[in-house]
Amino acid sequence: MSSQDQTIVATAAPEITNQFKSLADVGWYGSAYLLTTAAFQLPFGKLYSILSVKWTFLVTIFIFEVGSLICGAANSSAVLIAGRAIAGVGGAGIFSGALIIAAHTIPLQYRPIYTGAVGAISGIAAICGPLLGGLFTDHASWRWCFYINLPLGGITIAVVAFLTPSMTPKRTSTLTTKQRLAKFDFLGMAAFMPCIISCLLALQWGGTKYGWGSTRIVALFMTSFVLFCCFVGIQFWKQDNATLPPRIMKKRSVAGAVFFSFALGAAFFTIVYYLPLWFQAIKQASAARSGVMNLPMVLSVVVISVFAGGMISAWGYYTPFMILCAAVSAVGAGLLTTLEPDTPSSKWIGYQIVLGVGLGLGMQQPLMAVQTVLDMADVAAGTAVVIFGQTVGGSLILLIAQNLFQNKFIGNLGSYVPDVNPALVLAAGATGLEKAVPEADKAGVLQAYNDAVTTTLLVPTALAAVSILGAAIMEWKSVKGKKFDLVG
Question: For the residues of 81-133, what is the DSSP string, one character each?
Answer without folding.
Answer: HHHHHHHHHHHHHHHHHHHHHHHHHS-GGGHHHHHHHHHHHHHHHHHHHHHHH
